[in-house]
């Protein structure tokens, strides 16, 4: 998907310039080779799982950018690629003005100090044979920041900041509860005083009361340490509470992006609308029925032609959806809001008059569209 | 009102520990499930909700179970022999587990797994001659045609699996997470039960898929008059699915009542706290309400109200008993401070906690 990132250039003319860009990816791709044996490489074409397929993402200093989507849409792979835990297949990652996609060795190590990652399951992210105090203090040693008593003091202070007790420094991961472990995970990420933290489903495994505690902590730390966040989650209620801007991913691509308000109040992509309709609601349980989005995410090896969402799309327009990949374009009258859907170019009247073709009619369109493309 | 389908009264489940520090996972739980309703059992992890459900099916053989009543259709489940229990499991009470991939047999087609339950249920005519079976397998190559297989395909269709004929001969790993969960539901239905216990059936699924599974459960409940005991930690799931809700905390029931009462007029500080901590509708930067602290260790649970250490309203009285108050015929809370002082407390019944 090609994007002209109009939002950043146009906004700079405003009297209140937006904060500087901390991270920007352009056309970022991460493919995983499927059959990587020698014979496959010599004789056959290697099939690839296109986990992330051309993503542009911008994170400004001090803001939280959410990445949402169903499992398998590539949101975790995106998080890992932009922090260089995975090497990108193609595209660029610019962190604080420097191209980091080619970093290696010493440069990469220095980058690790400034970019940290918090995993979903702290139990498997922490070494079970080390006390949590040792695990949290380790980065100070690796990056040569502090040693001896200074190291111990810094870890102890951060533990208190995270709402843990000093006595828990000597605990092993299995001795702590899920909420406490996630606090340790946060401490381990923050000990190097990073600029950017990527959270991968940090509260998905937690009960709702613990979830609220951790989310409050995450919000508070952002102000105190002047941090920028990338927040990966499938929980739209959580994302709404934490994020300034959101990117919605489907099958390796960003299909819509905008501020939290724009996405929730004025969703433009049929997929975003479907996601919002499927969210459980406690407050509107009588007013609004949850709706299922039928079908399942497409094959990442051989994604559908045209718009990747078209086989499941409840607002399917016509043959264009099958044969033509929609460009990412700005939503008229909504600055910074972008969507990749053919709907975006239709007038309101046309949209309202449209009834999606169903059954046989749709199959015919899909068949023709597919053959037309070849 | 007729007898409820499932009655649990004052259930206690203890896991003995050789060190002497026994784990009391469930401590005085009562609940009843009416025929054809969806009853939500909500609680945080470790609150004893899964243990309660498994005890109903007597699936925990290393636990000490005691109850003043544990009855299904008026029959005492604790008095049944293992052989009699086998007739209850599947035929009377079906079970759906959270992780379908580990609950289903990986080396058996899903159709065969469902058909097995149908055969075990025992009222199908499986008569096909060996000859016709061989011909089918090696000559005509048509799909299986035994009654149990046909029933399995039918069940897969009932639970909303597209192309059930084809899917029935596939293995669990070939299906998506949502489809596997539907297979589990089909399997639970195969014995034609009156009650299905669903233990976190949607927790591992995407919201888009979850909505479909929950709709499916509601429809089954209406179409087949099956009652469902839905165990979950997610209040969003309960809100739009259940008729009644029982809220558990640290092995005890805190409050139970009709879903609307629980969500609109919660009458326990814990339920109130739970509802406040849901981030729904919270705007960027809002401080979420939390319940400070964490649940007590089940090996060393305080007497009285288990929630008192985290409760903003706890008083001296909370240390010695957990009284039950009826707010209406169906809505009960277990708290000294509810209903509020001015709310009339005529129907107060104090039940002292069993000594430990």
From TrEMBL, chain A:
UniProt entry tagged with the keyword Transmembrane helix = no
The name of this protein is Peptide ABC transporter ATP-binding protein
> What is a single Pfam family found in this protein's UniProt entry?
oligo_HPY
Give the compositionally biased regions (Polar residues). Answer: 1-16
- Quote the CDD domains the UniProt record gives: ABC_NikE_OppD_transporters
Q: Please spell out the taxonomic lineage of the organism that makes this protein.
A: Archaea, Methanobacteriati, Methanobacteriota, Stenosarchaea group, Halobacteria
Membership in a protein family: Belongs to the ABC transporter superfamily.
Q: Which residues form the signal peptide?
A: none
Q: Residue spans with biased composition (Basic and acidic residues)?
A: 282-293
Superkingdom field: Archaea
Query: What residue stretches are annotated with the ABC transporter domain?
Result: 23-276
Record keywords: ATP-binding, Nucleotide-binding, Transport
**PROSITE patterns given for it?**
ABC_TRANSPORTER_1, ABC_TRANSPORTER_2
A GO MF annotation of the entry reads: ATP hydrolysis activity
Cite the residue spans of the region called Disordered. 1-20, 281-307, 348-374
Q: Which SUPFAM superfamilies match?
A: P-loop containing nucleoside triphosphate hydrolases
- The keyword Signal is assigned to this record: no
Organism expressing this protein natively: Halarchaeum nitratireducens
The Gene Ontology biological process annotation of the record reads:
peptide transport; transmembrane transport
From TrEMBL, chain B:
Record's bilayer topology term: Peripheral membrane protein
Kindly state one GO CC term assigned in the UniProt record: plasma membrane
The source's domain of life comes to Archaea
InterPro entries in the record: AAA+_ATPase, ABC_Ni/Peptide_Import, ABC_transporter-like_ATP-bd, ABC_transporter-like_CS, Oligopep_ABC_C, P-loop_NTPase
Keywords recorded for this protein, A-Z: ATP-binding, Cell inner membrane, Cell membrane, Membrane, Nucleotide-binding, Translocase, Transport
Query: Which PROSITE patterns would you find in this protein's record?
Result: ABC_TRANSPORTER_1, ABC_TRANSPORTER_2
Kindly list the GO molecular function terms attached to this UniProt entry. Answer: ATP binding; ATP hydrolysis activity
What PANTHER family does this protein's entry cite? ATPASE AAA-TYPE CORE DOMAIN-CONTAINING PROTEIN, OLIGOPEPTIDE TRANSPORT ATP-BINDING PROTEIN APPD
Q: What is this protein called?
A: Peptide ABC transporter ATP-binding protein
The scientific name of the source species is: Halarchaeum nitratireducens
């Amino acid at each position: 998907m090609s994007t002209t990132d109009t939002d950043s250039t146009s906004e700079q003319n405003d009297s209140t310039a937006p904060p500087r860009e901390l991270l920007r990816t352009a056309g970022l791709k991460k493919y995983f080779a499927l059959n990587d044996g020698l014979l496959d490489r010599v004789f056959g074409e290697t099939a690839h799982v296109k986990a992330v397929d051309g993503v542009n993402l911008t994170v400004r200093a001090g803001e939280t950018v959410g990445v949402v989507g169903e499992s398998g849409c590539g949101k975790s792979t995106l998080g890992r690629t932009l922090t260089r835990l995975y090497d990108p297949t193609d595209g660029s990652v610019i962190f604080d003005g420097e191209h980091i996609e080619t970093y290696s060795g010493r440069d990469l190590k220095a980058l690790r100090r400034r970019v940290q990652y918090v995993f979903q399951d702290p139990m498997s992210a922490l070494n079970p044979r080390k006390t949590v105090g040792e695990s949290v203090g380790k980065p100070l040693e690796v990056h040569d920041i502090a040693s001896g008593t200074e190291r111990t003091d810094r870890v102890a202070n951060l533990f208190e900041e995270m709402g843990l007790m000093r006595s828990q420094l000597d605990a092993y991961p299995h001795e702590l509860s899920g909420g406490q472990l996630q606090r340790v995970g946060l401490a381990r990420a923050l000990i190097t005083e990073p600029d950017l933290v990527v959270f991968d489903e940090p509260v998905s495994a937690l009960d709702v009361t613990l979830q609220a505690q951790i989310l409050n902590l995450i919000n508070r730390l952002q102000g105190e340490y002047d941090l920028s966040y990338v927040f990966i989650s499938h929980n739209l209620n959580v994302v709404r509470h934490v994020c300034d801007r959101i990117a919605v991913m489907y099958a390796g691509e960003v299909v819509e992006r905008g501020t939290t308000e724009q996405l929730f109040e004025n969703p433009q992509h049929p997929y975003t609308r479907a996601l919002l309709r499927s969210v459980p609601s406690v407050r509107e349980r009588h007013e609004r029925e949850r709706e299922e989005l039928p079908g399942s995410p497409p094959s990442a090896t051989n994604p559908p032609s045209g718009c990747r969402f078209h086989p499941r799309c409840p607002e399917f327009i016509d043959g264009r959806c099958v044969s033509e990949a929609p460009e990412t374009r700005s939503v008229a009258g909504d600055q910074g809001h972008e969507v990749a859907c053919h709907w975006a170019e239709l007038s309101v009247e046309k949209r309202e008059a449209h009834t999606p073709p169903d059954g046989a009619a749709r199959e015919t369109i899909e068949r023709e569209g597919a053959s037309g493309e070849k | 009102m007729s007898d409820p389908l499932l009655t649990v009264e004052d259930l206690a489940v203890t896991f003995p520990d050789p060190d002497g520090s026994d784990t009391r996972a469930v401590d005085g739980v009562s609940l009843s499930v009416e025929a054809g309703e969806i009853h939500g059992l909500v609680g945080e992890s470790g609150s004893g909700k899964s243990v309660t459900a498994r005890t109903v099916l007597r699936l925990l053989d290393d636990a000490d179970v005691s109850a003043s009543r544990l009855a299904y259709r008026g029959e005492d489940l604790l008095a049944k022999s293992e052989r009699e229990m086998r007739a209850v499991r599947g035929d009377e009470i079906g079970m759906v587990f959270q992780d379908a991939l580990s609950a289903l047999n990986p080396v058996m087609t899903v159709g065969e797994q469902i058909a097995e339950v149908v055969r075990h249920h025992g009222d199908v005519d499986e008569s096909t001659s060996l000859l016709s079976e061989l011909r089918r397998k090696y000559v005509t190559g048509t799909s299986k045609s035994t009654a149990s297989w046909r029933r399995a395909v039918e069940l897969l269709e009932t639970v909303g699996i597209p192309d059930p004929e084809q899917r029935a001969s596939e293995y669990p790993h070939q299906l998506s997470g949502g489809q596997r969960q539907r297979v589990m539901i089909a399997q639970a239905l195969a014995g034609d039960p009156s009650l299905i216990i669903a233990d976190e059936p949607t927790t591992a699924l995407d919201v888009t898929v979850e909505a479909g599974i929950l709709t499916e459960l509601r429809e089954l409940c209406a179409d087949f008059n099956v009652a469902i005991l839905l165990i979950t930690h997610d209040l969003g799931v309960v809100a739009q699915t259940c008729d009644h809700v029982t809220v558990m905390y640290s092995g005890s029931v805190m409050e139970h009542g009709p879903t609307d009462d629980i969500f609109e007029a919660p009458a326990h500080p814990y339920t109130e706290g739970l509802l406040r901590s849901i981030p729904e509708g919270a705007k960027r930067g809002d401080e979420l309400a939390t319940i400070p602290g964490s649940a007590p260790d089940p090996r060393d649970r305080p007497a009285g109200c288990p929630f008192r250490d985290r409760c903003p309203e706890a008083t001296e009285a909370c240390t010695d008993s957990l009284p039950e108050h009826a707010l209406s015929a169906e809505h009960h809370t277990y708290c000294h401070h509810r209903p509020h002082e001015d709310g009339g407390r005529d129907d107060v019944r104090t039940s002292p906690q069993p000594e430990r």
